[in-house]
């Protein structure tokens, strides 16, 4: 505690051990655990000094804020019952205990110290470049705030460098139209942007954090340009909570792959209906009734199930197996018609996994609306990009 501060006699008899103080300062990174302000320098005049105060979550003295009678003196002055705070917030939590309850303070302490731990565990080899691609997205600035992107990267043990965010969409003058020609031009523009940045700026050993929202055929194309040449992590946009940071979630998802319709010599379609179900008649409306239809899906398709990176990896493994199965089962097929209805990060990861030299060419489909149905926009593999 700061010198000269009047202390309760009970605290005096059971002073906070020096090793506990050092532990707390280290775990908090020398910053206030509520506002993140550095506590080793004055923020107005730059005067260096110790401005940190050790605040008790459960007060030592009876009648104090959040006091617990069953805590021992050792527990009261333990690391788990202490927070490193600036004087302003120390005063606030003790004078407004009804607003700063035990659960809130414990959560803030846990999150702050976990963030400091993650940051200090990151080595120089884990620094990354942040890459964004937003196309045909309303209010895309809300999703591209650099603070949000950096927070998401840090949450995945990646340290964003000081370089500005690479915005693959920034120089594009092409507007979205629900026409094949529009997608072809946008795919060409995206390829130019990727070559511009990745060939000249990003080295093969750089880590890359990718944040992308766009029509799914373009997300797939973006993935083909990233492929396995770069150390890439693709982030999912979440509908609740932090827009990009992975939540603390270990949920697993069971992906299902099956054939729903057979034909001896018909076209081959793969429907990846993960965000919403796609009925076979919608595919037949495009390709006719003489068709083989495969589905890669989950038991209850929805837009929010991608809550951790392992789900991404499990999807990629299933997608890889599906492409190989379809190729082996349809020896006369010359291409696969791919209908995508899936979360943004999985569309990019699917493109990253596609191997043009080994896999059948893919015809990618877009749907302008449920009423208008699907239409072919791009062909990947073979002689097309």
Explained architecture:
It contains 11 helices and 13 strands. Strands 8-10-9-11-12-13 form a 6-stranded mixed sheet, sandwiched between helices. The protein is α/β, with parallel strands linked by helices and 385 residues long. Strand 12 (362-369) and strand 13 (373-380) form a beta hairpin. The protein starts with 8 loop residues before the first helix and ends in a 5-residue tail after the last strand. It has 3 domains: 9-121, no CATH class; 124-235, Rossmann fold; 256-380, no CATH class.
> How many domains in all?
3
Q: Indicate the radius of gyration in whole angstroms.
A: 27 Å
- Give the class from helix and strand content and strand pairing: alpha/beta
SSE string: HHEHEHHEHEEHEHEEEHEHEHEE
Could you give the order of strands across the largest sheet? 8-10-9-11-12-13
Q: Residue ranges: pLDDT <50 for 5 or more in a row?
A: 1-12
Q: What portion of residues is helical? A: 25-40%
Number of strands: 13
Major sheet: 6 strands, mixed
Q: Which helices and strands appear, and what pairs or packs with what?
A:
Blueprint: H1 9-13, H2 18-28, E1 53-56, H3 73-76, E2 82-85, H4 87-95, H5 102-121, E3 127-134, H6 146-155, E4 159-160, E5 166-167, H7 180-200, E6 207-213, H8 216-226, E7 231-235, E8 256-261, E9 267-273, H9 280-287, E10 291-297, H10 309-329, E11 336-341, H11 344-353, E12 362-369, E13 373-380
Parallel strand pairs: 3-4, 3-5, 3-6, 6-7, 9-10, 9-11, 11-12
Antiparallel strand pairs: 1-2, 8-10, 12-13
Helix pairs in contact: 7-8, 8-11, 10-11
Short description:
The chain has helices spanning 9-13, 18-28, 73-76, 87-95, 102-121, 146-155, 180-200, 216-226, 280-287, 309-329, 344-353; strands at residues 53-56, 82-85, 127-134, 159-160, 166-167, 207-213, 231-235, 256-261, 267-273, 291-297, 336-341, 362-369, 373-380. The protein is α/β, with parallel strands linked by helices.
């Amino acid at each position: 505690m700061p010198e000269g501060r009047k202390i309760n006699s009970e605290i005096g008899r059971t002073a906070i051990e020096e090793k506990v103080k050092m532990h707390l300062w280290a775990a908090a990174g020398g910053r206030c655990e509520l506002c993140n302000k550095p506590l080793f320098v004055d923020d107005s005049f730059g005067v260096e000094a110790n401005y940190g105060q050790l605040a008790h979550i459960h007060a030592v003295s009876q009648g104090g804020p959040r006091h617990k009678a069953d805590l021992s003196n050792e527990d009261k002055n333990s690391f788990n019952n202490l927070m490193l705070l600036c004087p302003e917030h120390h005063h606030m939590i003790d004078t407004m205990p009804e607003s700063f309850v035990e659960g809130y303070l414990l959560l803030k302490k846990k999150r702050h110290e976990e963030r400091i731990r993650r940051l200090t565990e990151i080595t120089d080899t884990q620094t990354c470049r942040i890459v964004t691609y937003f196309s045909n997205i309303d209010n895309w600035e809300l999703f591209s705030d650099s603070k949000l992107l950096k927070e998401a990267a840090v949450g995945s043990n990646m340290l964003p460098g000081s370089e500005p965010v690479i915005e693959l969409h920034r120089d594009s003058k092409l507007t979205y139209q629900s026409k094949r020609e529009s997608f072809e031009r946008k795919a060409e523009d995206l390829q130019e942007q990727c070559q511009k940045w990745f060939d000249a700026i990003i080295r093969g050993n750089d880590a890359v954090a990718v944040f992308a929202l766009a029509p799914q055929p373009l997300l797939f194309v973006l993935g083909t340009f990233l492929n396995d040449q770069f150390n890439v992590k693709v982030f999912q946009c979440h509908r609740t909570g932090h827009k990009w940071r992975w939540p603390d979630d270990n949920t697993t998802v069971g992906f299902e792959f099956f054939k729903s319709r057979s034909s001896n010599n018909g076209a081959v379609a793969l429907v990846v209906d993960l965000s919403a179900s796609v009925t076979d008649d919608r595919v037949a409306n495009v390709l006719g009734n003489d068709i083989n239809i495969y589905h890669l899906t989950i038991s209850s398709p929805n837009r929010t199930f991608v809550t951790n990176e392992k789900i991404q990896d499990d999807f990629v493994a299933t997608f890889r197996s599906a492409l190989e199965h379809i190729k082996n089962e349809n020896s006369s097929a010359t291409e696969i018609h791919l209908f995508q209805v899936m979360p943004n990060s999985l569309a990019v990861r699917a493109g990253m996994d596609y191997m043009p030299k080994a896999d059948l060419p893919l015809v990618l489909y877009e749907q302008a609306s449920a009423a208008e149905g699907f239409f072919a926009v791009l062909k990947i593999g073979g002689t097309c990009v």
